[in-house]
């Protein structure tokens, strides 16, 4: 699974100007106005109430008032109710965030308390909103809106990578993960993310270059796809890897220090991936594991490597080698990214 090649310091120096460029760019704040379209109501625009850690939050009451029905805010209990015909929804800034007809809405994204009401994120409007309202919503970002940047890395390429024949004929890891990366990029873009691929063809790229591409582009999340093969016939299911927390005594310009300050965020990202993949895949969950990795250690944003399954086990073949399987995995990664960005900041 690993693109393990020792990193040489001179190579790092080569990329340093690019890393510095990424730092100087800064990370623009995401989100402001969102245009919302839904059947039966006039399109309307929501302005962000606040933007924090570049996540935009919108006034939940102002949003619900755009739809037919009755909205009631109770400042005492901190609950916002919405009644429409026979259905009744309650929002609160603690779990369960959403009750629908008295029952917690599964997988509702967090709601938070704002000045004089409750706030919901764009991810909430996209994912939880349609379920809550029982209607399709289309959210269109304002043209000038900066998007969240995600780098999707398809492992291997060229000569490297494993193989397996559980699905019938022999399949190569490098091909499986590239297809998966392309599908994931498409789904992420469809959900409003800006996406960069480290490779979109069959060529080998050094680990440090993959990391430098992500860092130069100012990635805010990084995911690398791999699959186990015949070399790990005992492997079953999926596994998420993160780099060990870097040694604090490392000089800041050393490549191993890429994860400095990111260790907790990478674990949060890995946990989100594990949770959504666990829901999307009917297979074994091998958990989140720390692994020394020249790739992950050099990436300067929350970074995880997912071994999505094993090509040598028939139980994983469908998920890895069919378009439906890839779509399920891609949707899980989108859901994890949305969860990651909409979680309340610590
Ligand atoms: Zn691999």
Nutshell version of this structure?
The chain is about 35% helix and about 25% strand. By secondary structure, it is α+β, with helices and mostly antiparallel strands.
As laid out across the biggest beta sheet, the strand order is: 16-13-17-20-18-19
Relative helix content:
25-40%
CATH class of the largest domain: Alpha Beta
Number of strands: 20
Oligomer: single chain
Shape: globular
Q: What's the order of the H and E elements?
A: HEEEEHEEEEEEEHEEEEHEHEEHEHEHH
Global mean pLDDT: 85
Model description:
With 346 residues, this protein is α+β, with helices and mostly antiparallel strands. It folds into 2 domains: 9-27 and 147-342, Aminopeptidase (3-Layer(aba) Sandwich), CATH 3.40.630; 34-141, Copper amine oxidase-like, N-terminal domain (Copper Amine Oxidase, Chain A, domain 1, 2-Layer Sandwich), CATH 3.30.457.10. It contains 9 helices and 20 strands. The chain has helices spanning 9-25, 60-64, 122-133, 173-190, 207-216, 263-280, 294-298, 314-321, 323-342; strands at residues 34-38, 41-46, 50-52, 55-59, 70-74, 79-84, 87-91, 98-100, 103-104, 111-114, 117-121, 137-141, 149-154, 163-164, 171-172, 194-197, 221-228, 238-242, 285-290, 303-310. It has a 6-stranded mixed sheet. Strands 5-6-7-8-9 form a 5-stranded antiparallel sheet. Strands 3-4-11-10 form a 4-stranded antiparallel sheet. A hairpin with a 6-residue loop joins strand 14 and strand 15. The two termini are 33 Å apart. The structure holds zinc ion.
